[in-house]
Amino acid sequence: MDGPAPLVYRGVSKNYQTHFWQRPFTSLDGFSLEVRPGEILGLLGPNGAGKTTAIKLALGLIFPDAGSVTLNGLPAADPAARRATGYLPESPYFPDDLTGLELVQFAGRLHGVPERELRARAAELLEQVGLGAAAGRKLRKYSKGMVQRAGMARALVARPRFVILDEPMSGLDPVGRREFRDLILSLRERGATVLFSSHVLTDAEMLCDRVAILKDGRLRALERVGELFASRRVRGWEVEARGGGAVAGAELVSERGEERLWRFPAAMQAEEIFAAVRAAGAHPVMLTPQRETLEDLFLRTLADEPAAGRDGAAA
Amino acid sequence: MRRILAVAQATLAEAIRHRILYLLLLFALALIALSRTLTLLTVGEGGKIIKDVGLSAINVFGLMIALFVGVGIIFREMERRTVQVTLSTPIARWEYLLGKFLGLAAAITIMVAVMAAALLGLVALRGEFTASLLVAVFMLWVELIFITAAAVFFSSFSTPIFAALFTAAAYVVGHLAWALPLLQERLPAGAFRTLVGAVYFALPDLEYGDVRALAVHGVPIPWDRVATATVYELGYAALLLTVACLAFRRRDLV
């Protein structure tokens, strides 16, 4: 999708001064990233990597010590930049004496949604996130997952073109996670851009067009998930075999009666593997390549020294 | 404007759900009612006692409401990070602070109105209602609006405990500042005298607007004093809010 980038970080650094006698803590260090229109970009990284700092900078809640942040073509500190942006914070706390409907309506008023359509839109969104029946209930009577759902409805009340979700799946049950995944995908279908941070790599793998991996406040990798899957390397082979004894060069993974699962190193060829299995008196049933997952990439990136992103940072 | 009103409405709704507010209001009303009993201890001064105790109750409990509810609401917003959720929308920070102030001011106004209604009703029952009593209540309200602005001002850059302490200090200092011009008169000309004058100029003088004694004794309150004190205190409040908005504009909300 063409158009201006909804969010651009250019050489952003952010330090926090906890106490005046202590040295400042660097949360982001020369961070550059461009979120492209219409994509779902996953912001991944261990705790303290700088994900939430990056999100707060985008929303103008904190200010960079160096570099610039542009949201929807305007400086992030400009309130007008947030007009077309929805935000779901991590573990959100909302005033608990509001009802779900009041919460969404309040956000709608701040976003300038016309009063005449606000109530209907809020009710529709709450229905969409599965809170239709609980819309009139106070938030203090909501479970954690329900608060998360209300937060999602709140984030979408202005029909934003850009949605920032900080750990959106936390507190959700498996059904809720599935529903949120579908909702995030539907946002992309209607042309919205989504930036979301997550610790759950399977969610990122299923949803994201690209993933940015942060560590110690720096961008360590920026990968297209599609390309990652197409080119991901084989990290080993698994062979299901029947009968026989120990197979040379293989590690026994599991055993059930006559059926055994053997793991071979990635360097071996299929012919060599079959030959080794037959040499042990076993009959090979199935050979499966073990490909690299996003988790492998994540762990490898965190272990490596700074690696240039394959997909480039801010263009 | 709609965003400011939305925040003000939400703040008012939160304030009037505060339990401590009802507790303080109950104490104030109880004290006003009790003042009628105190009249039994004196002869011929009953009306004055009711007015004195009633106005003091409005003053003290109004101050406590402004402190606990005003600082408390902003404290909770910061502590629980709801402020971040609100400011992630297209609202400017000054709009947010102004909305908070207006919501708190509306809550204070309702509380003062309820306490004043009880006091004025009691006085009217005795047939001792005077316009100066109404003026005194108005001036108390103006002072509480100033205190609310001070609470918002200190909360915009300080931690909640300090904000509460500073706000209480602003009230105390405001009622003691009148002594500074007297001190200045007695000092010899020089740097210290100039300094005392400058400190007096910078500090709020709330005593000038305190017309309780006049109202209690049924002395007519000069309108120019009421007008000057109102403009002075509300102007000072506006100044505090302006500085608060400037201080809050670039504050990191971590």
Molecular structure report:
The complex is a heterodimer of chains A (315) and B (254). Chain A is α/β, with parallel strands linked by helices. Chain A is built from nine helices and 14 strands. Chain A has helices at residues 51-58, 100-111, 115-128, 144-155, 174-189, 201-207, 225-231, 270-279, 294-303, and strands at residues 7-16, 25-35, 40-44, 66-71, 74-75, 85-88, 162-166, 193-198, 210-215, 218-224, 234-242, 251-256, 259-264, 283-291. In chain A, the strands form three sheets. In chain A, strands 6-7-8-3-9-10 form a six-stranded mixed β-sheet, with helices on both faces. In chain A, strands 2-1-4-5 form a four-stranded antiparallel β-sheet, covered by helices on one side. In chain A, strand 12 and strand 13 (259-264) form a beta hairpin. In chain A, helix 2 (100-111) packs across helix 3 and helix 2 (100-111) runs parallel beside helix 4 (144-155). The longest helix of chain A is centred in the middle third of the chain and has 16 residues, at 174-189. The radius of gyration of chain A is 24 Å and the shape is globular. By secondary structure, chain B is mostly helical. Chain B has one domain. Helices cover 79% and strands 0% of the residues of chain B. Chain B contains eleven helices and no strands. Chain B has helices at 2-15, 19-38, 46-79, 82-87, 93-125, 131-155, 160-176, 179-186, 191-202, 212-216, 223-249. In chain B, helix 5 (93-125) runs antiparallel to helix 11. The longest helix of chain B is centred in the first third of the chain and has 34 residues, at 46-79. The model of chain B has no long low-confidence stretch (mean pLDDT 85). Chain A binds chain B through residues 16, 56, 59-63, 79-83, 85, 87, 89, 92-95, 97-98, 106-107, 109-112, and chain B through 2-3, 6-7, 10, 13-14, 17, 80-82, 84-92, 95, 250, 252-254.
